[in-house]
Amino acid sequence: MACRDLTRAEQAAEEIRKSTGNGNVVIRHLDLASVYSVRQFAKDFMDSEDRLDILINNAGVMMCPKWLTEDGFETQLAVNHLGHFLLTNLLLPILKSSAPSRVVTVSSIAHIGGQINFEDLFFSRRPYSSLESYRQSKLANVLFSRELARRLKGSGVSSFCLHPGVIYTDLGRHVYSWFPLLGTLMSLPSLLLMKTPWQGCQTTLYCALTPDLEGRSGCYFSDCAEMETAPEGQDDAVARKLWEESARLVGLKETC
């Protein structure tokens, strides 16, 4: 378990140990908003582990205020995409040596209507929109997963992307500050329509564990079934350009 908050991580790990009887649950510090932290985590993992069968890129932030990371990146694109992009690339050697292996990236239906603004990825020259930024980052997840599958074809490493559903978690805490009316709308009837965290992780588990899914590498899933992405999620030229720009931003000289 790669987590930013080690106190909360240990609490979650202990719950897993008790509920499963598996004492071999390890936590390590990882802050996806920091290029240094991602590189340090990857180095420590490669130095201490023999294999990596499944990498689940699950961390995320949603519609937060305009914050910049220590590297000068807008936070939503940094955490939701650039951190996962760098982490996956740094772990590719052990993923390849562990093949067949899988990379599962959690995106969102919010990628629909998203746009990768290469001229101003971090909202430096245009008014910041938390929703536009979130959509851009979730579209980046879809395009990254698609391009990763293309680059890894024949390597034994598969790449999948998914929409987990609308889940009742703390992820939406920033939404209510932008749209106070939503706080009122989130009444009991609305909550009944949202997924629990257990329900929300099922598509992630489907992509991680379903046998013989390798032939669907590069595809997008929702509710444990393959779904078509929005047209903007199928643009291979934009996917390649995003890959190259992401590598430049995080200082990655060699990629797959």
Structure characterization notes:
The chain is an alpha/beta fold. The chain contains ten helices and seven strands. The chain has helices at 6-20, 35-48, 75-97, 130-151, 175-178, 180-185, 188-193, 197-200, 202-209, 236-250, and strands spanning 2-3, 28-29, 54-57, 101-106, 157-163, 220-222, 225-227. The strands form two sheets. The chain has a five-stranded mixed sheet, with helices on both faces. A two-stranded parallel ribbon has the order 1-2. Strand 6 (220-222) and strand 7 form a beta hairpin. The protein is globular. One of its GO terms (molecular function) is oxidoreductase activity. This is Retinol dehydrogenase 13. Belongs to the short-chain dehydrogenases/reductases (SDR) family. InterPro entries: NAD(P)-bd_dom_sf, SDR_fam. It comes from Xyrichtys novacula (Pearly razorfish).
In short:
With 256 residues, the chain is α/β, with parallel strands linked by helices.
Major β-sheet profile: 5 strands, mixed
- Average pLDDT, to the nearest integer? 92
What's the N-to-C terminus distance?
25 Å
**Helical segment tally?**
10
What is the helix content?
A: 40-55%
Structural class by sheet pairing and helices: alpha/beta
Query: For the CA atoms, what is the radius of gyration?
Result: 18 Å
Family: Belongs to the short-chain dehydrogenases/reductases (SDR) family.
Keywords: Oxidoreductase
GO molecular function, one term: oxidoreductase activity
Protein name: Retinol dehydrogenase 13
